[in-house]
Amino acid sequence: QAQLVESGGGLVQAGGSLRLSCAASGLTFNRCAMGWFRQGPGKEREFVAAISWNGENTRYTDSVKGRFTISRDNAKNTVNLQMNSLKPEDTGVYYCGGRLTTSGEYVYTRSNYMGYWGNGTPVTVSA
Q1: What is the DSSP letter of 27?
Q2: What average pLDDT does range 68-81 have in this prediction?
Q3: What's the average model confidence in pLDDT over 32-50?
Q4: How many whole angstroms separate alpha carbon 118 and alpha carbon 36?
Q5: How many other C-beta atoms are found inside a 10 Å radius of the C-beta of residue 22?
Q6: CA separation (Å) from 7 to 10, 20, 48, 101?
Q7: pLDDT score, position 104
Q8: pLDDT at 88 over 90
Q9: Strand ranges for the chain from DSSP E
Q10: Taking residues 18-44, what's their average pLDDT?
Q11: Where are the extended beta strands (E) located within 1-65?
């Protein structure tokens, strides 16, 4: 059974850093495009960052460019999100999503394209 498990969330002051990890099992991870999405209080789930299964293509939402970095380790079946210079507006539950794809270059930025989801890890950034 496919499973994605996020970790690394927590409470941090503005300007601080967190590193989120997502561990995958039960799926062909090295053929899955992966992404991070977040859902703030009272908001819809939104795209944050994405990476192709070959790791060569990445994409970020504008508000996190230059602050967040997505990476993956196909040998360990993990995808990570390094978050620096955190802001209060980054607060939310962060979800790891995955989609099996035939192309190593594809990235997906829409949540409805994802076939696999984790349960999320909460991130709170205090002012």
Answers
A1: S
A2: 98
A3: 96
A4: 10
A5: 26
A6: 9, 6, 16, 25
A7: 87
A8: yes
A9: 3-7, 10-13, 18-25, 32-39, 46-51, 58-60, 68-73, 78-83, 92-100, 116-117, 121-126
A10: 96
A11: 3-7, 10-13, 18-25, 32-39, 46-51, 58-60
